[in-house]
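job 3f2a | input accepted
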Amino acid sequence: MRRKSFTLLELVIVLIILGVLATLGISQYMRSIEQSRGAEARSILGQIRTSVLGYYMSISTLTGIDNTAVGIGTTNDLIPSSCRASHYFNYALSLITSTTLRIDGTRCSAGGKTPTASVGIGGIQLTVDANAGTDTWSMSPAYR
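job 3f2a | predicted structure (144 res):
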């Protein structure tokens, strides 16, 4: 009488297939997590943009604008200007002209927030031309 059972080779092949599927699933999961972090950063950049345009509407220039004028800083109630436990990005303004500035959202890479190697360290930039009313987005491939 013969017993029906799996051979060792069949079991090894099944384990290899499961390992490959798990690896693919984890990398896809990490990619989607990073994209959601990018969506949060784009939302915060939009909030900063609104503050920048409010500043421009009140004095008709962006000259003299700084991080604190639009709510970017180091205290917990402000949008972070440096990496901290509650955010995966930090933000900063760069004045280009008296009516144009760039808002940078840079991905934190320390404090347990290191992105996976497939994502890499990058960021999202929003260039605001307050006079023309135009916005230009630029971002690392992981956040598109």
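job 3f2a | The mean pLDDT is 87.
job 3f2a | closed
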